[in-house]
Amino acid sequence: MTSLDVKQNTNSNRVLFKNITAFSFLQLMNYAFPLLTIPYVVRVLGVEKFGLVSFVAAFVNYFTLLTDFGFNFSATRSISINRDNPNRITEILFSVYTIKAILFILSSILFLLTILFVPVLNSEKELCLVSYLSVLGTMLLPQWYFQGVGKMSVITWVTFCVRITTVILIFVLVHTVTDYKVYAFLNSAGGVLIGFLTFLFVIKNLRKNQPFNGTTFFSVLKEGSVMFISNASINLYTSSNTFILGLFASPTIVGYWAAADKIRIAIQGILSPITQGFYPHLAHLFSQSREKAIEFIKKSFLPIGIIGFIVSLSLLLFAEPISLLLLGKEFVNSLILVKIISFLPFVILLSNFFGIQILLNLNGSREFSFTVFIAGIFNLILSFIMVPKLLAIGTAISVLMTEVIVTLLMIYFAQRRLRIEGNNEI
């Protein structure tokens, strides 16, 4: 290995470390701050109103999905590969934002028509409207840009300042059960402010007078559409569960499930900096040397797997004290749900490792899309069979079974790709 190679590896590792560190802090804020407010909010709003807010948020998430269009992965990868080419990055940025703006307009029209003609949503149209503001925040937020260039410190500090302000305002303004719309508005407004401030930073640093590049635009659209199909399928076995449960159960039952899932998501957030920090680093490695990338993956697998297992085991063993501390006795029915889904962080970590980190970087987008499509259909069918009978427990079982199937398929396809590439299995 030459001195130049050593220097490049050192710089690459430094970027990875800074990215993971920034992601760790960002995820800490995204999950720790809600954990600070959840014990207060669930006690003030109660199970029913908390369930109602969660049901509407799950509905709004469909429009967030459409507006995001898979760019958090496809654009991150494109910018990471072209991080040393400012002109190309500007072309990608312009194309992504143009597409997202068009999708936001279409989403808004569809959203307004839906709440106008669907009675259960029309009866809470104010809650729907304030919750929908989060979609605007998603449109503006350039997290994919900061991930790709390995400069997460900007978005991290902006998020910190806005989140801490939001937490303070929740304690100041949310006092009674009737303040559930205020709670939804504060969460949405925080997302809009983060998106707007980081958007201004990106626009300020763009190369001016860059001509529109039609080839780049359609390339970005094509790459994003592949991930959008995958994300839409993923949504069928993740965010859709709360919405489907709300179709058959009361807001109170939805509240039990939503609270349990928030605990799981918060615990799972411990692992997110690793997976999200690895993706742009691996994309960059694969663009330089597949051998080095595969070697890095093999060295990382065991320690990452051990960490994920410990996190899930801890959630299972300490489910009761965690639930009582965060949710209180009113949410005692959430305890069994937390236990059922306690190993989801470990299962999803493996799925991410083999699916996103390996399969996508080995050009296995077709197998990836097939896996999540099958999983989405499977969960949809299973949910409509189990939820009407078992309600929240049926939702928990459906989610766990689906994620296990996803992980097994991701492992199979990733190992097959590695054999095709001439690299031994992991």
Write structural notes for this entry:
The chain has 426 residues and is mostly helical. It has 2 domains: 200 residues, no CATH class; 191 residues, no CATH class. It is 85% helix and 0% strand. Helix 1 crosses helix 8.
Key terms:
85% helix, globular, 2 domains, mainly alpha, 426 residues
Order of helices and strands: HHHHHHHHHHHHHHHHHH
Helix percent reads over 70%
Shape: globular
* CA distance, first residue to last residue: 25 Å
Low-confidence stretches: none
Mean pLDDT: 86
Tally of DSSP β-strands: 0
Q: Give me the Rg, rounded.
A: 21 Å
Query: What is the strand content?
Result: under 5%
Overall number of structural domains: 2
- Structural class, by secondary structure, is mainly alpha
The largest sheet, given as strand count, sense and whether it forms a barrel, is: none
